[in-house]
Specification:
By secondary structure, the protein is α/β, with parallel strands linked by helices. The chain folds into 3 domains: 91 residues, Beta Barrel (Elongation Factor Tu (Ef-tu), domain 3), CATH 2.40.30.10; 117 residues, Rossmann fold; 79 residues, Ubiquitin-like (UB roll), CATH 3.10.20. A 6-stranded antiparallel beta sheet has the order 4-3-6-1-2-5. Strands 12, 13, 14, 15, 16 and 17 form a 6-stranded mixed beta sheet that branches. Strands 9-8-7-10-11 form a 5-stranded parallel beta sheet, sandwiched between helices. It is globular and about 65 Å long. The two termini are 45 Å apart. The relative contact order is 0.10. It binds flavin-adenine dinucleotide (FAD) and FE2/S2 (inorganic) cluster (FES). Flavin-adenine dinucleotide binds next to strand 4, strand 5 and helix 3.
Length: 358
């Protein structure tokens, strides 16, 4: 009843406050007073490594917490333009009072570099509800192996912290790949867990040292192949491909769960289906020869700047109308040629001539 009444008041207030939602007015008073939007104020900024920034955030009341491994949409306004990206909270699950994010700056990356250079206490970011299927099962496995590389440390560290906070004593092995020892955020915390908790085993491998260590079956065999072990991994494509091949060979692929921060958008070259046609960007008066990449990448190569968020088909920020022509969904391989359809241009590659409303 109280909920229905609140919704009624909300609808009336919004109707009177048109043309903008109530939150647009409230943010003029204080961006942390919101009716519907979930926002978070940065309360602390740490630079644990040269390329990353760790943010502590205090969310508004709408934040419901996350499960270990999930991600959230973060939006940041730069020069009046809102940009959306996804980050995986690093804290243990269930903390509704604080969100911790560690953002690794990519060379040429817009939002990650902006946050690395400009994030300050007091800055307010937009956030979304936690989502994602990459998470620990509620029936915790007997043995857990966590594998991460580079920025992929965040969701699996959330898993480790959650397991530690639960006081479980089942064995957990945390295997992390970084360029050098200086590139590991949370190094002191991980070393301390390894030293002080008998059931936690932390292993580091460095890929850009005099003696580089890339993935090798020996790094996991003694733990991942134990009966009942489940492996959770997140990292760069090269690491994840190597671990997947290993898991296939050892017959443990059904116990391997993974999260990617990017998808491979390399065009599939099929001699029976040569790349042909022209892409016409109907809103921009631009046309270019189809080179087989996704419509988002081809639009960017043509100097256009369509909006995007995840670049991997999860957020719909890049949705545009395909006026005509056929596209292939690079995740599913499905072809679609119905005119005037909304498509996600980050995961759609043209097959022949395509007109897209960009
Ligand atoms: C589920 C999920 C969870 C994630 N969790 C984390 C996390 O916890 N920590 C973390 O650090 N990251 C995380 N990420 C990655 C993060 O969301 C961003 O993708 C990353 O920070 C890069 O964003 P950016 O704005 O800096 O780079 P962008 O500016 O978006 O650039 C990324 C790439 O897009 C291409 N590109 C962009 N613009 C152009 C253009 N105009 N022309 C040509 N190419 C272009 C380039 O290939 C570039 O390398 C996660 C991603 C996902 C999907
Ligand atoms: S950018 Fe997220 S679905 Fe395309």
């Amino acid at each position: 009843m109280a909920h229905k009444l609140a919704r009624l008041v909300e609808t009336i207030v919004e109707a009177t406050a048109t043309p903008y939602p109530v939150d647009r007015y409230l943010e003029l008073i204080d961006p942390m007073i919101t009716w519907r939007d979930t926002r978070a104020k940065i309360t602390d900024v740490r630079h644990q490594t040269d390329r990353s920034v760790t943010l502590a955030l205090r969310p508004t009341r709408q934040w419901k917490g996350h499960e270990a491994g999930q991600y959230i949409e973060v939006s940041v306004v730069v020069d009046g333009v809102r940009h959306r990206r996804f980050f995986s909270p690093v804290g243990a699950a269930g903390n509704t009072g604080e969100i911790e994010l560690t953002v690794t700056a990519h060379s040429g990356g817009f939002v990650s570099r902006y946050l690395r250079e400009n994030a300050r206490p007091g800055m307010v970011l937009g956030i979304g509800a936690a989502s994602g299927e990459f998470r620990l099962p509620s029936d915790r496995p007997e043995r857990i192996v966590l594998v991460s590389g580079g920025s992929g440390i965040t969701p699996v560290l959330s898993m480790l912290r959650t397991l530690v906070a639960e006081g479980r004593h089942a064995p957990v092995t945390f295997v992390h790949y970084a360029r050098t020892p200086d590139d590991v955020p949370y190094r002191a915390e991980l070393d301390a867990l390894d030293r002080t908790l008998e059931h936690v085993d932390v292993r580091f491998h460095f890929t850009r040292t005099d003696n580089p260590e890339h993935f090798d079956a020996a790094h996991l065999a003694d733990v991942a192949e134990v009966d009942g072990a489940q492996v959770y991994m997140c990292g760069p494509a090269s690491l994840m491909t190597a671990v997947r091949e290993y898991a296939d060979q050892r017959g443990i692929a059904d116990r391997l769960f993974s999260e990617a921060f990017t998808v491979d958008t390399t065009p599939v070259l099929d001699p029976n289906q040569p790349i042909t046609g022209e892409v016409t960007y109907t809103e921009s008066d631009v046309a270019t020869a189809n080179d087989g990449r996704t419509l988002l990448e081809q639009a960017e190569a043509a100097g256009l700047t369509p909006e995007y968020g995840c670049r991997m088909g999860i957020c719909f920020s890049c949705t545009k109308v395909r006026k005509s022509g056929c596209t292939r969904n690079i995740l599913t391989g499905e072809l679609d040629s119905e005119p005037d359809q909304h498509i996600q241009i980050c995961v759609s590659a043209p097959v022949g001539d395509v007109e897209i409303e960009v």
